[in-house]
Model the fold of this input.
Amino acid sequence: MAKEILYSIESRESLKKGIDKLANAVKVTLGPRGRNVVIEKKFGAPQVTKDGVTVAKEIELKDPFENMGAQLLREVASKTSDNAGDGTTTATVLAQAIINIGIKNVTAGANPMELKRGIDKAVASVVTSLKKMSKEVGDDYNKIEQVARVSANNDAEIGKLIAEAMKKVSKEGVITVEEAKGIETTVDVVEGMQFDRGY
Done:
């Protein structure tokens, strides 16, 4: 099959459309007051989620050029999830804003490489500022509970259980989250090693 090739403004606009479609679907999940998104599944019931990376992974666009734009933004969400475990929606919204402003500047005649170098400098500056503002949680289980609660959409019970699990296993331990077979949420501590399957 022959490849279709787009150049200049036409290519940027197609990529931008795909980026905007994905980002607009993801950004409604942002923050503690974010809304749920319902995702159609080919088999079974639809999935309801407030997780940005889950929404991003499910979006597939018909137009191949728009889909490329969506794939670029999906990569941002996936990398953020892999590296930080959270913040995928924030990363998606920031990437959309940077791309939209970047496209405006390139269209107005800015040098794309100079623009990229400027973005790199801005990122370095922001990272330095964030590192200065950050506070180490350490062994303060009240802070651990607060962080866990925020990550669990302000679910106080989950926050307490995560803090309890952290207290039991300390920094060297591993916490594994599994879907329960019943309606109760519990913490189980396993000393040593555990194998899911054997002979």
Notes: The chain has seven helices and two strands. The radius of gyration is 21 Å.
